[in-house]
Write a structure and sequence with these properties.
Helix 5 links the parallel strand 9 and strand 10. The protein has 466 residues and is α/β, with parallel strands linked by helices. Helices cover 32% and strands 23% of the residues. It is built from 15 helices and 22 strands.
């Protein structure tokens, strides 16, 4: 008999709620009434733009087992399966905390300026063949995403991976104290969210909050090549972490990248992990994937799983949506290749994407084209950081660069005239410029911060060339 994820009695005890209606069992937890599946527990969160209480009736009609509410919603029957609490957000956090308290899983938490989601997905792939594995969906890494991911964790899980993000100081601490990981991994510290920080040193301090919730005897996995490594290692030690493992090119790294070879579809990795030579393949193109795979293997080993099996599993890795997905698009006279990097962007990830674009060989007569949107939350350094991307385009010999947005105008001006594909005010306006310039054989990479809406360019280009 399969045990339900939650019973009504368990949830009521976890969130200190007052139940109404009959007893129930739930096999899932959701905060979005539009994606409710039969048997889900619906938690009606109240936000600045939407109130989940307005959708309780439709959630129940669509098969929700019950709903957690902090006021009685309109349109529900008197005997509806509801659990009344003081605050639904607090109830979600309490449910996540209760889930963690009953779990015997080996848990890893991942943070970092870039590469969190890809690293989390590689970890899930590396561990899933070695035991039942649970991980947060997509980029559910904030104040509601982390407790929701915890609340969804089955009791029988052997391994669990949670992504933890932030854009302000103090945000990681309460989240990692819910997760209580056995392993804490930091991918890197870079100039991301600079609008809210005075320096990358302050970002490093915020990332180091991940050590505040680690379990006794826990292990830290740190980027050895990063400029803030010494600070991170010191913070880990102050948190009582005695086992620090590192990855990078550095001669002293626990997992050392010796070499990698990038082809259009994957990355071959040659590494030395704790004096053990390893050769394996990651099923996504890009040197950054090779580097982060080393962090993955260190975490796999730290959790007690087999590092060789974990390395072999990474060949099946596929790029998450908006993070390097590729497709061939038909157009008049042939086709072009479209690389979707539109999920988000920062100076370091933008340069990495340009380097990956450079590794792709266009078909006969084709060119390498970058379509770049604004990188947001960079503060006063934004204009200069955008202009600096021109050097990466020059170094990697990108044929044309199209730009969209206010900040990328600085990049456009910094480009050599022959590399300027065109500039527009926004994503919708730049898409026609790119489509008009396309020719068969081209390779086109689209990237920008989520707020720059570069996914619209991807959608427009995916419809086909002119």
């Amino acid at each position: 008999m399969i045990r339900p994820l939650w019973t009504s009695a368990e949830v009521a005890a976890a969130v200190a709620g007052t139940p109404s209606g009959p007893a129930w069992e739930a096999n899932g937890v959701s905060i979005d009434s539009r994606s409710i599946e039969s048997g889900d527990l619906f938690i009606a969160l109240e936000g600045p733009n939407h109130d989940g209480h307005d959708h309780v009736a439709s959630a129940l009609a669509n098969g929700a087992a019950a709903a957690i509410v902090h006021r009685l919603p309109e349109g529900t029957n008197e005997d509806a399966p509801l659990l009344l609490v003081k605050d639904t957000m607090a109830a979600l956090q309490d449910l996540g905390t209760a889930s963690r308290a009953r779990s015997h899983a080996h848990i890893v938490a991942v943070t970092g300026s870039v590469g969190k989601t890809g690293t989390k997905e590689m970890l899930a792939l590396a561990l899933s063949d070695q035991g039942t594995t649970h991980c947060s969906v997509g980029s559910f890494n904030n104040h509601w995403g982390v407790p929701l991911s915890l609340a969804r964790m089955p009791t029988a899980v052997q391994y669990a991976i949670f992504e933890i993000g932030m854009n302000h100081p103090g945000e990681i601490t309460p989240l990692v104290r819910m997760v209580r990981p056995h392993v804490a991994a930091i991918t890197t510290v870079e100039a991301v969210h600079m609008e809210f920080f005075g320096s990358t040193a302050e970002i490093a301090a915020a990332k180091a909050e991940i050590f505040d919730g680690i379990e006794a005897g826990g292990i830290a996995v740190l980027p050895r090549d990063n400029a803030h490594f010494a600070f991170l290692a010191e913070r880990a030690a102050k948190a009582g972490i005695k086992d620090v493992r590192t990855f990078g090119n550095h001669i002293e790294a626990t997992a050392r990248l010796l070499d990698c070879a990038v082809d259009p579809q994957s990355t071959a990795v040659f590494a030395l992990v704790a004096d053990q030579p390893l050769s394996y393949r990651v099923g996504v193109a890009g040197r950054q994937w090779a580097m982060n795979s080393l962090a993955v293997l260190l975490a796999v080993e730290a959790l007690g799983a087999d590092i060789n099996l974990g390395a072999m599993a990474l060949a099946a890795m596929a790029a998450p949506k908006g993070r390097g997905q590729r497709r061939r698009v038909e157009m008049a006279g042939g086709s072009f290749e479209l690389i979707d990097e539109s999920y988000n962007a920062s100076p370091v990830s933008m340069k990495a994407a340009i380097a990956t674009l450079a590794s792709v060989r266009p078909a006969k007569g084709g060119r390498r084209i970058a379509v770049l949107g604004d990188m947001l939350e960079l503060g006063p350094q934004g204009p200069a950081l955008h202009a600096s991307i021109a050097q990466a385009a020059e170094s990697w010999n990108i044929d044309l660069v199209f730009t969209a947005g206010t900040l990328t105008s600085h990049l456009h001006q910094a480009l050599a005239e022959g590399r300027r594909g065109g500039h527009a005010a926004d994503a919708d306006s730049v898409a026609p410029l790119v489509k008009a310039a396309l020719r068969p054989g081209d390779v086109v990479m689209v990237k920008g911060s989520a707020g720059s809406r570069m996914g619209r360019v991807v959608n427009a280009l995916a419809e086909g060339g002119r």
